[in-house]
Structure formats: C-alpha cells, structure tokens
Design a protein that fits this description.
Elements (H helix, E strand, L loop, with lengths): L1 H15 L1 H10 L8 H24 L9 H11 L3 H29 L7 H22 L5 H15 L5 H9 L6 H33 L11 H25 L24 H6 L7 H18 L1 H4 L5 H27 L2 H21 L8 H7 L1 H13 L25 H9 L39 H13 L13 H13 L6 E2 L2 E2 L16 H9 L29 H15 L6
Antiparallel strand pairs: 1-2
Helix pairs in contact: 3-5, 3-9, 3-10, 4-5, 5-6, 5-10, 6-9, 7-8, 17-22, 18-19, 19-20, 21-22
C-alpha cells in the first residue's frame, strides 16, 4: 500500500511539481517572524472552518420556516444519529470564534499590531469581529426557539431606537412589525451565504496583508513558514479538541421551547450583547439609543483609529482606553448576569422556560404536527394547562410552586380535592391558605371549632361531633370527585354512609347536595354533589355563579376579590384544559 502511494506521489510530482513547491513554501522566511500571536489568529480560522463544515451538514436537515425550523433542529439534536455532535460543534465554534477574535483584537491593540504598515490588516481584524457578531445574531434565531426569538426582539428594539431610519431597519430585520417567516428567511440567507462569504474574504485579505507586512516589527530571519504552519496546526488541533470536549460534556447545544410571542420568557440578548442590555438600564428614553449604540460605536472608532492615535501620544496613554473598553465590556456583561442570578422573577421565569424546553423536547419525540411545534405545545394539556393556570389563576391562588404566598387572596389549591385538604378546610376554613384572605372569610363556620363570638353560648354545638366523623365527611366529599380510570379514593361503605348522612343533614343547612338544601337561603355555599370532579371544576372555571357550583352570589360585586367567570375570556377548550390541570394537580396527578 505504501509503495502504491509513493508511486502515485511520484507520478503527480512529475506532472505538477507539488513537492518542490511545498518545500519552497515551507522554507520561505516569514516577514516579521512567526510569533505565537500568529497562531492565535489561526485559532479564529479554525473555528470558521469548523463552522463552515458543520454548517453544510446542518443545512441538509434544517427547514427555515416558523412551522418547521424548531422541529428540524430538534430532529438533529435528539433523533439524527450523532446529530447532536455536529450541532454542538457548530454552536460552540460560534461562541469560541467570538471569544478568540476579541482576545486576538485585545492582544493586537496592546501589542501595537496596528502600526504602519499593518493598518489594513488591523482594520480587517476588526471587520472579522463585527461579522462574527452578526453571524451569531443571525444564527441564534434559526432554531426558532424562545431564546433566539426573544433575543432578536430585544436587539431589534435597540436598533429601532435609532433616529430616522431605526424603525425601518428594525422592520427590515424582522420582515414586518414582528419577527416572522420573512424575517427568518432573510436572516437565514445572511447567515449561510452573505456573512460567511464576507468573513472568508476578510480572512483571506488579512492573510495576504500579513504575508506581505508580517505580524510585528521584529526581523527574525530564522523563522520559516513551516514553523508558522506547525504552530498554527497545533493551536487549531487544540481548538478542535476543546470544541469536541465541550460539545460532549454538554451533549450538543441548548434548545429551548418553540418561540412563543405570547409567552413570559425572560428576554435577553445574546451573551456578548449583555453589555448593551446593561447600558439600557442607565440610559432612558431617547438617550437609550445614544448609550447603547453611540457608546459602542465610539469604542470601535477608537480601536479603528489606533494607527493614527498611537503616533501622537505615549504608549501608556494609548493603551489605557483600550484596557478600559475591554474591562468595561466584560464588567457590564458580568454585572448583568449577576443581577439576573439574584432576581427572583427572572429565576422563576428561567425555571419555567427550562420546564417548557424539557416538555417540548419530550413531546416532539412522538412527532411534531404540520401546524408546528408551538401548536404541539398548546395541544398538550399538561404544558398548556400549567400556562393557563399561571396566567389566569396564579394571581390569586397558589398551586405547588405557582402563585405568590404573600399575595394570594384565594385558597391554596395544593392538595385540593383530596380528603386531607377537605378535612383541613372544614376544620379551619378561615386559615390563610383557605378562605382567610378572600371574600369568603367568615362565611363558612368551622364544623367542630367554637367561633370566638360564641365563646359564652351554652347552646352552641359543633356540626360534627368527632374527628372520625369529620374525616368521614372529608373522605366522602373527596370520593365525589373520582373519575373513571383514576385511582379511587380509599373509602369503605361505612365511612361513605356516615359522610353522606352528615352532608345531607348538617351541611345542607347552607350547601346544596344533589340540588336540595340551603335551608338558610344564603345562596353562597357551593353544590357538593360532584365536588372536585371534572364537570364541577370546569363549571367553576366557566362561571362560579351558577347552581352547578357556588351559585349566583359568588359574583356579588360587594364581595371584593371574588372569583371571576372565564367563559368570556377563554375558549371552551382552554377552560377544559385549565380545569382538568387544576383538578389533576390538586389531587397529585398529572394529565396524560
């Protein structure tokens, strides 16, 4: 085999002279020597090469439309054989390209690589950094997940603040008043065609300039291109190994839930634009544009003008603003991240986003409908039910981790419908986690605790005379919410009979049971037949002021903070979903 390769190489050498040309190239001297800074530049080129190769592979599976983009990326990440490796390499190479390019610029600024006659090479280096940032921005939206979509919204809002043409530029980026199909197509074209071509041209032109003028003023006649190439290959290999290591450790690249313009995702720009995000908190109104745009532009202009500035001032004076620019950029970005890490609202929204992402990834393994991944999420009762509860119910109620315990004015529904919850309710209805903070406080008496205003009343008697009877009532009422196909409430016939007897007797003074009762005519206490069932819960969500649940006085305007009716705000399907979700999670179950 080796002999055949040697003969083939000899045949090709005889006709092309490639060996002699290669030796001549490797033995040629490097203008200005071959410092390690040159190898650092090669690391940027390595990242670009990895991005180009993996990008070509990803293009074979990616479908650029709002209905298909997320599903195609999910397929690569979770289904395609070793697709997560390819996507991970692409994603982390993009991050590394930005980091290494910025480090290269910082090193060049401090090492004075911009000095005559290398001004053009310096400007091309800055161009590569800017184009790499644009590649990151355009590529971040392609998965069409919440992170990418909302990041573009934040970035588009900053651009839109520019006087005069800001709104026009924002609409061109988004493809309309909101980022949609046209905007995705434009960003995709920029990402895979226009920007890579510009980066390649800039890298090529920069390489030509450096070959002509060298990397520094040093004249090292002993340096040869072979030495430079060896260092570049070594650094490039380390970059590739690092990318494989990070991709393997993190199993590819992150993919969040499908983009939802109506969601409560904690919108943030890309990490390398967090500096601008932090600056927005300092400048307000019209000044926001100047702080977030003109400030970075001034910093970029200073770096671009270094070839002239350097000749008119001492090195320390020139270098100080350079250090301040990079320290401020890193410091502001870290400050923004630190604030997020201590912000309860952000952390809550971040946890919800992570939960949605995990749910979406799991659901998509069973297939994504033609309507798209977002429709898939909205059709899932578990995911959509939680969203509806958080949006419409958690402002007053609590349920497990949803709702604010300090602001809740209605009952805590954690455990609702179970015997233990009902037992606590009828024993102490005015507890804070029951009716104690809402309009029903004082409306329902305890079944076995003497009220304060009856302390001296010798005729007072408890409605339920023993703990055993109280638990029998709670267990009986819990059993009324049982549905076919679910684990039934554990209750024997004796307990059922005792509970029903007390409900028909003591409880029917205020409550209805199977349409009968309410001997006091209060029209406030709910119907107990079917209490906690799907039908009862759905009726309560739709309109609590009917005889099916709490009856007409439940919506009395005089009862401040009473539960509203939702049949005028939610679709029948959404009312059904939120009712089923609330009931299931109250009982410690999840929806199928």
């Amino acid at each position: 085999m080796a002999g055949r390769l040697t003969r083939a190489g000899g045949w090709l050498e005889e006709r092309t002279g490639w060996r002699a040309a290669m030796r001549a190239h490797l033995d040629s001297p490097v203008v200005g020597g071959a410092p390690w800074a040159a190898a650092m530049g090669a690391s940027v080129g390595t990242c670009f090469l990895v991005l180009a190769l993996t990008g070509l592979v990803l293009m074979t599976a990616y479908s650029p439309s709002p209905q298909t983009a997320w599903a195609s990326v999910h397929y690569v990440q979770y289904v395609q054989d070793r697709g997560w490796i390819v996507r991970g390499l692409h994603y982390w190479a993009a991050q590394a390209l930005l980091v290494l390019a910025v480090v290269h610029v910082a090193h060049g600024a401090l090492a004075r690589s911009y000095r005559r006659p290398r001004e053009v090479a310096w400007w091309l280096t800055l161009v590569v950094v800017a184009l790499a940032g644009a590649e990151g921005i355009t590529g971040g939206v392609l998965p069409w997940d919440e992170r990418g979509w909302w990041a573009r919204v934040v970035e588009g809002n900053v651009v839109g603040l520019a006087p005069g043409i800001g709104g026009w530029i924002q609409r061109m980026m988004q493809g309309g008043t909101e980022l949609g199909a046209l905007g995705l197509s434009r960003l995709y074209a920029l990402h895979v065609v226009v920007l890579p071509a510009l980066i390649l041209l800039a890298l090529r032109a920069r390489s030509t300039q450096l070959r002509r003028h060298g990397w520094s003023d040093a004249k090292d006649a002993t340096s040869r291109w072979g030495e430079h190439l060896a260092r570049a290959v070594g650094v490039g290999a380390l970059v590739v190994v690092g990318l494989f290591a990070v991709s393997g450790a993190l199993h590819g690249a992150p993919l969040e839930a499908p983009a939802d313009p109506l969601g409560d995702y904690p919108a943030r720009p890309e990490w390398y634009l967090m500096t601008l995000y932090e600056l927005r908190k300092v400048f307000h109104g019209a000044g926001e544009f100047f702080g977030t745009t003109l400030g970075p532009m001034a910093a970029g202009a200073y770096l671009a003008l270094l070839p002239w500035i350097d000749g008119k001032a001492r090195r320390a004076v020139v270098a100080t603003p350079v250090v301040l620019i990079f320290v401020a950029a890193v410091g502001l970005g870290m400050a923004a991240a630190h604030k997020d890490s201590r912000d309860p609202l952000y952390l809550k929204q971040r946890a919800n986003a992570d939960r949605r992402a995990a749910a979406a990834a799991k659901l998509a393994m069973e297939g994504v409908p033609p309507q798209g991944a977002l429709a898939m999420l909205h059709a899932d009762p578990e995911v959509h039910g939680r969203e509806l509860f958080e949006q419409h119910c958690a402002t007053c109620h609590r349920m497990q981790d949803l709702g604010d315990p300090k602001k809740a004015t209605a009952t805590d529904l954690t455990g609702w419908g179970q015997a233990k919850w009902i037992d606590a309710m009828i024993h102490e209805p005015d507890a804070d986690e029951r009716f104690g903070r809402g309009p029903y406080k004082g409306k329902m008496p305890s079944v076995d605790v003497r009220p304060a205003d009856k302390a001296s009343d010798a005729n007072w008697k408890p409605m339920i005379k023993s703990d055993a009877d109280r638990r029998a009532v709670a267990t009986f009422l819990a059993s009324l919410g049982d549905e076919a196909g679910e684990p039934p409430t554990a209750i024997d016939e004796a307990t059922r009979a005792t509970g029903e007897r007390i409900v028909n007797g003591a409880c029917s003074t205020c409550h209805l049971y199977k349409g009968d009762g309410d001997l006091d005519g209060s029209e406030e206490a709910p119907e107990l037949s079917g209490y906690g069932s799907i039908a009862w819960t759905r009726a309560q969500v739709a309109n609590p002021g009917t005889d099916e649940t709490y009856r007409k006085k439940a919506l009395d305007p005089g009862m401040k903070k009473h539960m509203p009716r939702f049949d005028q705000d939610l679709s029948p399907a959404d009312m059904d979903v939120v009712a089923r979700w609330t009931r299931a999670h109250g009982r410690g179950m999840t929806l199928p």
